[in-house]
């Protein structure tokens, strides 16, 4: 996914200078379509050190589920139900969704 | 499965089949003539109604002479679409827009079936249907536009007949062909709105690109298993398919309903939503699902709407600097781009030398001759539960390597004469069995051979009563 697009706006980006209250944040990862098959999960709570990006989160997920690698290059990433890119910093209680395309019909 | 009637010779069968075929053709012809005459009759009645200033008492139609009508809906249309007209937010304007619009539905399968039913019913002016496939028994659980009588016949023909029977005033156009870069521009250019109801990745990229090149809104739906996705591409500054997915997913990530299964009602729901979005765009009402994607999760009964990105300035097709022309579209190889075939035909791999393979008929002979052997079925367990060959052991391909000792043990047990038991591998269609044999041979099982064409060929060439799925 291209990270250079200027039009990206997420709630998180707007309140970016947020103070880091603790040393870690807890987020919820939502898996859709193929991501569900590969992980066997629909969602997963994930603890990350504060200041972590969505990319850090993906790295952590791939370490745990190596087969996720297959869809990394072709999916929509959404943070709190809004399109996001890998460089966004995740906040406590955020929901990060991995949405690969379905092509069946 | 039940056996066919007893005692019928092959000649009898073929005579019956050919007579059935002739009669069905004649029946279709008669149906078409009836439908045409009925339409003619309606038109004549309409004209008479309009000319008739004396009300016949029972007719609820408005007489043009006595009423003030500021729209172009015929009295019949007013009556047929009255529930639309009564909707303040849709009304005469929405219906009138619909009647003037043209919508193309690509694919008359799980998504296309409900979409077409509603689009025909709602009074779209012209409705195009593209599909190259024929109706099969295993379509019926979800492709609700088709009836059993049409099994073996083109889906386009079947879908068109149903649409006409629902609404004879809609012009239905049939394209009984596969959509390709060679015909896509010509077909899509004749419609205002395109509905993608296909089932494969290359078609999705091709249709999206074609819509960008022609400037058409694309209502895109997809369904698999228990999940569905829906969005409107290339509309009101929204993204195209490539803005979202510039890189196609690897082949392994592209599953089909024929491989992974699908709960019939799931594409039904997404197809209905596709009809809804198309109707909103055609009627120029409401807020289309552009820049947003709807995710439907049947198991948890959840619908999520995710805000997706806007048009990407860097998109290779719709981006600012893109120079993707009609000519480039025509020359683009979508099958190569996505590493997947446009047709719904399953891939047939050919990974093994001939002496590592055996036909299903030959395997049958081995059984009949009582040859000592082990048959490993490498399909997933839930496939094995549907049907399997007698005495086969189920070791799914994914766990083959860790379960090799089971195969060694089984081979030893079978080896009564001491001259060694043979090892055969089977799967559904004969692709995974080849992969398994490659793996087995690497691990020292040199005599491993796969059954060409898998259980499908067993059902086809050896035992016609063997259930296929």
List the helices and strands and how they pair.
The complex is a heterodimer of chains A (105) and B (469).
Chain A: H1 11-14, E1 24-31, H2 33-39, E2 43-49, H3 54-64, H4 69-72, E3 76-79, E4 82-83, E5 95-99
Parallel strand pairs in A: 1-5
Antiparallel strand pairs in A: 1-2, 3-4, 3-5
Chain B: H1 10-51, H2 75-80, H3 82-85, H4 91-100, E1 102-106, H5 112-122, E2 126-130, H6 155-166, E3 171-175, H7 181-188, E4 193-196, H8 201-214, E5 218-224, E6 227-233, H9 241-244, H10 257-260, H11 265-283, E7 292-297, E8 302-307, H12 326-331, H13 334-338, E9 357-358, H14 360-368, E10 373-377, H15 381-384, E11 392-394, H16 404-414, E12 422-426, H17 432-442, E13 449-451, H18 454-462
Parallel strand pairs in B: 1-2, 1-4, 2-3, 4-5, 9-13, 10-11, 10-12, 12-13
Antiparallel strand pairs in B: 5-6, 6-7, 7-8
Helix pairs in contact in B: 4-11, 5-6, 5-11, 7-8
Any overview of this molecule?
With 105 residues, chain A is of the alpha+beta class. In chain A, 25% of the residues lie in helices and 25% in strands. Chain A has 4 helices and 5 strands, in the order αβαβααβββ. Chain A has helices at residues 11-14, 33-39, 54-64, 69-72; strands at residues 24-31, 43-49, 76-79, 82-83, 95-99. A 5-stranded mixed β-sheet of chain A has the order 2-1-5-3-4. In chain A, strand 3 (76-79) and strand 4 form a beta hairpin. The longest helix of chain A is centred in the middle third of the chain and has 11 residues, at 54-64. The radius of gyration of chain A is 13 Å and the shape is globular. Residues 1-20 of chain A have low confidence and may be disordered. With 469 residues, chain B is α/β, with parallel strands linked by helices. The longest helix of chain B is centred in the first third of the chain and has 42 residues, at 10-51. Chains A and B meet through helix 2 and strand 4 of A and strand 5, strand 6, strand 7 and strand 8 of B.
